[in-house]
Design a protein that fits this description.
With 218 residues, the protein is of the alpha/beta class. It contains six helices and nine strands; from the N terminus they run E-E-H-H-E-H-E-H-E-E-H-E-H-E-E. The radius of gyration is 17 Å and the shape is globular.
Amino acid sequence: MALVPYVGNSLPLLAKLHNSTSQFHFAKRDIRLSQDWKTHGVAAVVWDAAVVLCVYLEMGLVELRGKKAIELGAGTGLVGIVAALLGARVTITDRKQALDLLALNVKANVPTHLERSAVVSELSWGEGLDSFPAGGFELVLGADIIYLEDTFAQLLQTLDHLCSDTTLVLLACKIRYKRDTNFLRNLQHHFTVEEVHYDAERDIRIYKARKLLPPKDL
């Protein structure tokens, strides 16, 4: 998730973003996350898309135990932490500026016996992809990462690199602008895309995607 500096705003709807911590209960555990909106902006708070994706993972509709997963634009790390608690082996990634807070939250919420199942790693989309195995993940997770049009090409490049034709991609997002729909349309050139869940209260949609097989030579 990109880092955008905070500019003071007194709107009541943003009040929860100003809190220094945010608390949840997933995977039979209490999760307490540090937030730092004033320093790091959008990457340092928990957004509804992350919560809805965690609820979806907890439904058990996706097999997580033992799966090799990666979370993109992890921000505070909620989705990756929950996936690890539910049995996945997760690489939890974001840009360099977000890593200190991300690592703090992972350490605070992942028990010692699972610490190898939740590894924090730097990943700026489209950069240094050779550090990650091509097609090497069974599950790719992203919550509210479709919002900055300038990053869409790099995000597509990153998804293409990380995924094989058997990788499941789960993207949770709020469709705010036409550009968000355009990204999903462009994704369909490379992946099958299907809406699998809608949280009407929060207006969050979850899409699953799988990489298209290359056309066979005639």
